[in-house]
Amino acid sequence: GNPLAPTRARFATSLYAFRDIQGTPYAAQIQWLAVRRIIPGCGSDRFCPARNASRTTTAVALDRALDLPSVAGDDPFTDDDGSRHEDAINRVAVAGLMTGCGSTTFCPSEGVRRGRLAAALARAFDLPAAGEDFFTDDEDRSYEDAVNRVVAAGLMTGCTPTTFCTNQFVRREELANIVHRALN
After folding, report:
1. What is the distance between the alpha carbons of residues 184 and 153, in angstroms, rounded to a whole number?
2. Torsion on CA atoms 139, 144, 148, 151, rounded to nearest 10
3. Helical segments of 125-171, H only
C-alpha cells in the first residue's frame, strides 16, 4: 500500500489559441484569425464555436480585419458605454458597416443574423453587384442585394440550395470562417 504509487493519466495538449476549437470544422480558420488577433474569444482560453456570434464580436472582427481608423468623439450608442469593445463598435458604426438596433442603441450582446452580416460584409469589402439572384427566400427583402453579393464573392452560402435564411443567427465558428474567406 504505497499511496504515492505512480499512476497513468491521459492528457492532451493543443497548439491552438483556444482550447475548445480542436476537432471543429473551422479550427484552422479560427486559429488563423486568433494568431492575428482579429477575432476575440469568449473568455480566458475558449472560443465557444457553437455559440451565436454577438453583434459585438462581429463589430470587433470587422474593426480588426479592416484596421478601421479612430473616431474620437463619435459615440452613437448609449448601451455600449464602458464596454472594452466600445471603440470597435463606434468605428464600425461610423464607417457605415453596422447600424444600431435603435436610434441610440447597438444591442451589443444580441446575436447577429445572416442578413445583417451579409449587408455588413457587402459594405465592408465593397463587393460588386452580383449577376444572379441565388435564393427564393429573400425576394423583396432589404438584404437581397447584399446576400447576392456575398454569395457571388464566395463569402457565404445558403442554408439550403435555394434559401439563405436571412433571419437565422450566425454561429461564432461560421463568423470566423466567413471573415477568414473575406481576408484571403
Report:
1. 12
2. -100
3. 144-152
Q: What HEC string does 40-101 produce?
A: CCCECCECCCCCECEHHHHHHHHHHHHCCCCCCCCCCCCCCCCCCCHHHHHHHHHCCCCCCC
- For the chain, what's the residue count? 184
Model confidence, pTM? 0.88
Give the model confidence (pLDDT) of 24-44 as tens digits.
999 999 999 999 999 999 988
Q: Check: CB of residue 163 under 8 Å from CB of residue 135.
A: yes
| Residue 45 to residues 18, 41, 97, 169, Cα–Cα distance (Å) | 5, 7, 29, 24
Query: pLDDT for 141-172, tens place per residue?
Result: 889 999 999 999 999 999 999 999 999 999 99
Give, in degrees to the nearest 5, the angle at Cα 150 between 104 and 135. 100
